[in-house]
Design goal:
By secondary structure, this protein is mainly α. Helix content is 32%, strand content 0%. It contains two helices and no strands. The chain starts with 13 loop residues before the first helix and ends in a 25-residue tail after the last helix.
Length: 75
Amino acid sequence: MACLTVPEHRREHLALACVAALCTDIAARGHTASWSCSRDNRPSRLLAWTAGFRLEREYVHYVTGSPARHDHLIA
């Protein structure tokens, strides 16, 4: 799932409401929600923490080819 809030509606906790509703639905189906994002994605990590997710472990992601430019990794 991805949440993108237009600037004029930021700070209204809309993404948090979406995450909470999705987690409720997942739990109702007998499953456990999980969250993954880049270590550098501070907004995503903050939203996860606010929604009640807690860090279980950090992982390393390997890819082949040319290294990604750092400016494209920052959200």
